Every structure is written in C-alpha cells, then in structure tokens.
C-alpha cells in the first residue's frame, strides 16, 4: 500500500517515522517498534494500545475540525499508522525569526486549538514547539499524538500548557510574555470548561517543578563538599 519508505524522518524512543507515498500522495508512516527489554506479552499490549489510542485521538480531533494530520489508515496487527503529511515548518525552527505580530497570531491560534482539544477531554502529553507546525498556507497544526490520551482531569491540561511554556522559555525566554498572553487569550476563548481552574492547576504544576529543581540544585551543592 505504501511506497518508498527510504526516508526516515524520526527515530524516536517508541517509533520509527518515515515519509512515504500512497497513490502518489505524500504521507507519514509511523511504526511502533518492539522493545527487547520489555516482556513480549506486555510489549505487544502496550504497542497495540498506544497505536489504537493515537488513531482514535487523531480521528476525534479531525472530525471536530481541529488542525491535525488526518488519519489515512491503521494496521493494528503491525502497529502502523499512515497519516497525512503536513507541508510546513515546525514552530521551534522559526520562532526566533518571527515578528511580534506574527508571534501573537500564531500563539493565539495555538491556544485556540489547544483549548478546543482539551474541551474534547483530550490531552497531548508532549505539547512542545517541536510538535506544532505552521503549514504552507499559514495554518497552525498540532502533530505527534503518540503520548496523547483521554482525561477529564485538568492536571493533564495544565501539564500540556506547562510543557509548551517551558519549550518557549528554552528557546526565546525574552518573548515568553508575548507568547503566553496571546496563547491564553485563544485558550480562554475556545476552552469549554473552567478556564480559571486550568490556570490554578498550571500555577501548582509550575510550583512543584520549581521545588523539584531547587531540591536537585541543593543536592548538587551538597555533593560538592562530600569527600
């Protein structure tokens, strides 16, 4: 069914991602690979479960009008997904070059998409700038739902926002306020739940993160003086 799998796009911890073609249409082929360190029975269950969840998430988001790659085919026996190829660039590759106006536009669009996603009780699980694309026609797409899932727990939504915020801070710390102001405007407009509750949980997640980092730093300082 899929032709030309010579182009490996990504070799992740759990999957091989190829660029291929189906009926002369460019596609992404994602193959969840077996891990020798896992028990064979549980390895098979895990890969089937993650493949099934990712396929369902992509279908649900696409059917509800979100900008995500369309699911073309699923092979559960071999844990393979065939997904629409998005022609564009990743946000982490262009954010440093964006004007403030363009950054505000993209940030708002990202927030709007994420708010709609969370309204469907779906969390991404790895929401970073590397998993957000700007297409050739200037649309924001969220990609790579390999760690996504379903939950009504706002903790999961807050973690998504926290991960995205940290990825922006890592690349363009001086522009984090510009990004987050517009992101949260878009999110508040589209999220159907209690937006303030997500913000409250986000602050708690950030405090926990800072506490852990402080403990690690204190531990490292102590280690320097231990003979």
TrEMBL record:
Assigned keywords, A-Z: ATP-binding, Kinase, Nucleotide-binding, Serine/threonine-protein kinase, Transferase, tRNA processing
Q: Which InterPro entries match?
A: Bud32, Kinase-like_dom_sf, Prot_kinase_dom, Tyr_kinase_AS
Protein kinase domain: which residues? 1-227
What would be an example GO MF term here?
ATP binding
The record's Gene Ontology biological-process terms are: tRNA processing
Q: Which reaction does it catalyse?
A: L-seryl-[protein] + ATP = O-phospho-L-seryl-[protein] + ADP + H(+); L-threonyl-[protein] + ATP = O-phospho-L-threonyl-[protein] + ADP + H(+)
Task: Spell out the SMART domains in the cross-references.
Answer: S_TKc (SM00220)
Indicate what this protein is called per its UniProt record.
non-specific serine/threonine protein kinase
């Amino acid at each position: 069914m899929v032709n030309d799998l010579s182009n490996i796009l990504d070799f992740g911890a759990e999957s091989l991602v190829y660029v291929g073609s189906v009926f002369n249409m460019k596609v992404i082929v994602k193959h969840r690979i077996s891990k020798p360190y896992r028990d064979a029975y549980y390895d098979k269950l895990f890969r089937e479960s993650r493949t099934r969840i990712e396929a369902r998430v992509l279908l649900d988001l696409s059917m509800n009008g979100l900008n995500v790659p369309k699911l073309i085919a699923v092979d559960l026996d071999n844990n393979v997904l065939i997904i629409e190829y998005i022609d564009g660039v990743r946000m982490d590759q262009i954010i440093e070059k964006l004007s403030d106006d363009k950054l505000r536009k993209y940030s708002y669009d990202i927030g709007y998409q994420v708010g709609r996603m969370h309204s469907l009780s779906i969390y991404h699980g790895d929401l970073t700038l590397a998993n957000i694309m700007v297409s050739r026609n200037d649309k924001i797409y969220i990609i790579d739902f390999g760690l996504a899932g379903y939950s009504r727990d706002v903790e999961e939504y807050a973690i998504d926002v926290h991960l995205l915020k940290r990825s922006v801070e890592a690349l363009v710390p001086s522009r984090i306020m510009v990004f987050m102001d517009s992101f949260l405007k878009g999110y508040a407009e589209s999220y159907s739940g209690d937006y303030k509750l997500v913000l409250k949980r986000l602050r708690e997640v950030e405090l926990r993160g800072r506490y852990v980092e402080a403990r690690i730093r204190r531990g490292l300082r102590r280690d320097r003086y231990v003979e």
